[in-house]
Amino acid sequence: MLKGKMKDLTKISPTTLILIGVASALLSPFPLLYAPYFLTRYYVTILQTVLMWMTLSISWYFFSGFTKYIALGSAVFTGTGLYFTATYLNLMTFEGYPILPFPVIVLLAGSICFVLALAIGLVTLRLKGIYFAIATFGMSELVAGVIRWWQSKAGMHYIIFIPSFGRYIIYYSILTTALAILLLTTFLRRSKFGLALKMMGECEDAAAHFGVNTTLFKVLGFAISAMCMGLMGGSYAIRFPSINIRDAFSVEYSFVPVVMVLLGGVGTAYGPIIGAVTLSLLNQYLLVTFTGYFQLIYGAILILIVLFMPNGIMGIIMGTVGKLKATKLIRRKELAKAPKMPP
After folding, report:
1. Structural domains in the chain?
2. Is the pTM of the predicted complex or chain greater than 0.85?
3. What is the number of alpha carbons within 13 Å of residue 33 lying toward its C-beta?
């Protein structure tokens, strides 16, 4: 059964080729590579935000989109990456802690999130459905509360000051992390590991019957997803001159990636990218244009998306393509049945 599904993964339809071409044009590394040199600081900041949300959406989709275990604890991993990186940079600068290269600090943040997710996953992945979603959200709030309590107990402030970095270092650290996570999740998605996650999403009992170690793959998938979020959180930390702990563990990091994936389309690999780019740009436009009514308009748009676009943007595209194919097929059949005129 696994061999048959692996063969199906190698078949690429014309529609997929078109989508790959569009995504490659929009997310080609060459324009992104030189963006700070021909864009103003304002647009570079927007691009950094888009890359951050896109990466969080891809990371969330890698586990929850495949296994159908809806996790709402992304804030704990993104926040841990932000908090650890900001804290270590602060201590390294002002307290004389061992000086480490910034990429090493980010990798340490991702590793901490990986270990933390292993512990959380072993407990929460015994649950399913709404119980798992509530458990992961509760774990997120618990970890954030423990860190805030520890900060106050140690006599430390809620605001952590970060040494300044150059605008090019900030941008390229975020870009490098985003591209690395995109490549990692794409590779794993097309491997037997990704196939096992998809099988569990279709029917976990059937996957276990065919020899898939469901507990191992669930916990590892959850931990890899959390590691990716922690890496992006660590890279994104240097964008700010200071970080408030409450903002680092904001619930937005738990809910916004889910909405972005829903907007783009849950059943496709390009849905998280399209949803993240669309919603990020829409968010920025509404924030600048309708400052006083931003939250009201934004909330109304999200409700309309859920009501009238249940399959997301990719669902509409795929549905339109399917209708065009069906129309062409019907016309061919009608032409084949039509009587031929004598010469």
Report:
1. 36-295 (1.10.3470)
2. no
3. 3
